[in-house]
């Protein structure tokens, strides 16, 4: 059960205090409220519902070739450090009778990214959601992201990228389908 902004702000105030800062100095006076609002926004995926999100955007179609949506921007928060991870998501699916409106792919990505996440689970959840709403013969999701918890702290590695993939249905069964997808997304970069 998530707290209202004012209550959440009290916790941020305690964190600022706990860091040895003065939460009452001028620059920090509104920070607890701003931070609470920002955190609410970054985790708003918890309040969303998949069926509601894709409502009215699943269309009948005879299209049965691979559809690829590439380079969907992704902003999420790692559940281990509550620091951002940022990257791109690529989605492909093989429709059988139903296609999903283009903007909905980005909305599905955001719905699962705007939570406390690990990249592995995020990848799987997006793939399963697309399979669920479209009934596709196959769904593939690849995410490549850079993790602030690795760049700003800990091992401080600036150029490492994490790549995760989830292949469902035909993408899992057929090497040729998988290869076609991976070739399509490896172009243009
Ligand atoms: Zn982390």
TrEMBL record:
Pathway: Cofactor biosynthesis; 7,8-dihydroneopterin triphosphate biosynthesis; 7,8-dihydroneopterin triphosphate from GTP: step 1/1. Keywords: GTP-binding, Hydrolase, Metal-binding, Nucleotide-binding, One-carbon metabolism, Zinc. The keyword Zinc applies. GO terms for biological process: one-carbon metabolic process; tetrahydrobiopterin biosynthetic process; tetrahydrofolate biosynthetic process. It comes from the Bacteria. GO terms for molecular function: GTP binding; GTP cyclohydrolase I activity; zinc ion binding. GO terms for cellular component: cytoplasm. It catalyses: GTP + H2O = 7,8-dihydroneopterin 3'-triphosphate + formate + H(+). Residues 9-185 form the GTP cyclohydrolase I domain. Pfam families: GTP_cyclohydroI. Zn(2+) binds at residues 78, 81, 149. Its EC number is 3.5.4.16. Belongs to the GTP cyclohydrolase I family. Homopolymer. This is GTP cyclohydrolase 1.
């Amino acid at each position: 059960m998530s707290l209202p902004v004012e209550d959440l702000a009290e916790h941020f105030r305690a964190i600022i205090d706990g860091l040895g800062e003065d939460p009452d100095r001028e620059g920090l006076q509104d920070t607890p409220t701003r931070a609470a609002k920002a955190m609410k926004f970054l985790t708003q995926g918890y309040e969303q519902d998949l069926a509601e999100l894709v409502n009215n955007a699943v269309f009948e179609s005879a299209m049965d070739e691979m559809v690829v949506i590439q380079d969907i921007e992704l902003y999420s928060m790692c559940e281990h450090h509550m620091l951002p991870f940022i990257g791109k998501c690529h989605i492909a699916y093989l429709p059988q009778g139903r296609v999903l409106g283009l903007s909905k792919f980005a909305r599905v990505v955001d719905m699962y990214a705007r939570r406390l996440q690990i990249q592995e689970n995020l990848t799987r959840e997006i793939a399963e959601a697309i399979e669920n709403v479209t009934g596709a013969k196959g769904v593939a999701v690849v995410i490549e992201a850079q993790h602030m918890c690795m760049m700003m702290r800990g091992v401080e590695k600036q150029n490492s990228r994490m790549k995760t993939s989830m292949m469902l249905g035909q993408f899992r069964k057929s090497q040729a389908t998988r290869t076609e997808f991976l070739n399509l997304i490896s172009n243009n970069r």
